[in-house]
Amino acid sequence: MSNLDFIYKRHSVRKFKDRDVPIEDLKEILKAATYAPSGKNLQNWHFVVIKNKEKINQLAEIVEKKNEELASSTSDEELSKSFRKYVKYHTVFKNAPIVILVYAGPYPITGIDLLKSKGLSNEELEYYSKPSPGIQNIAAAMENLLLAAANMGYGTCWMTGPIYAGKEIENFIGLKKEDYHLAAITPLGVPEDSKIISPPRKPLEDVITIID
């Protein structure tokens, strides 16, 4: 058995058993998320946990409504049809007993004010901002959350697709934290199927470069 088996247990789960997640397990999973690396130790994350089934269904309805609104806004039928078909994937969280909304807070990019004072072009400033360190913090926390959940026998699914309805979801939730915005969503629950199914990965040789 590899010491890294906890990593390979994680896979995207979209169907869940009708079984609650004990609050002790939930807190342990969220604690693991907060131990992710964080630039400047700002920990610019916030987790909203929804256990109320009616509210979870309302979230799904918000996404469905926004999907239809956007799909109807174009005269390109193929584009509209293509966008509509994703709504079933963007609402799979409604099958879970818990939905976790991961919010991202502000993060000052080191040196950006100095770079602006040098009169750099927008293109140059965009280049320096591309790493998005603030969002990297959130991604690290999200990965910790998913790995901890999988290691404890729970299923999750990292979702950003529904964020086109982010504003509507934020208004529905009403989180009062200045300058925080919805960055990702994951359902959480006991998987309906215990079989681990992950899509194939690119060969390692295709994604690494070693410079001696």
UniProtKB/TrEMBL annotation:
It comes from the Bacteria. Transmembrane segments: none annotated. Residues 7-189 form the Nitroreductase domain. Pfam families: Nitroreductase. One of its GO terms (molecular function) is oxidoreductase activity. This is Nitroreductase. It comes from Gottschalkia purinilytica.
